[in-house]
Amino acid sequence: KNQVEQSPQSLIILEGKNCTLQCNYTVSPFSNLRWYKQDTGRGPVSLTIMTFSENTKSNGRYTATLDADTKQSSLHITASQLSDSASYICVVSGMDSSYKLIFGSGTRLLVRP
Amino acid sequence: NAGVTQTPKFQVLKTGQSMTLQCAQDMNHNSMYWYRQDPGMGLRLIYYSASEGTTDKGEVPNGYNVSRLNKREFSLRLESAAPSQTSVYFCASSATGSSLEKLFFGSGTQLSVL
Description:
The complex is a heterodimer of chains A (113) and B (114). Chain A is mainly β and 113 residues long. Chain A is built from no helices and 11 strands.
């Protein structure tokens, strides 16, 4: 069964600290992996999209990595800010259809002053 | 700079009532989607429209209907609401539906069915 598992479910860190969120997937075939940020009460916003051939992609203080062999991805947040408090969702797209995105349930991050 | 606009933001229905959730995008995108988000679960696709004039079922279509009114608008209708349809509903769009494209999401509609 195609699945996307994220860990931890929730995380609390102090402002200025770094953190890493994990994503494991069993989706096959594989086209790309995305990370989205979802603020409370808002829709998800795209952070990165990585294809099979990419193993790192950055967007400001956000750096995503992908290991397609082990089917794992991570999202590293550097020098966290209060505005980073949100849910972070890992999404995997299979090659068979552009309309069959598999969403993880997200990691809820709280950054405290 | 509106992007994807959904209305209403909140709605409370009684079991058996009907309603339509509206969605419009101003990015000239061809593909549009309706998702639902439930606590502890990933977003699940209800219906999608690859282009104007076409609609297809997603993962959880039962109890819903959709209309792609024109290129901008894609509505979701609940004919006879059930408590199991209590959820947050998101509309999204993408340029062509390619698997490499970003999806742009609206702000969501929080629906409670009593």
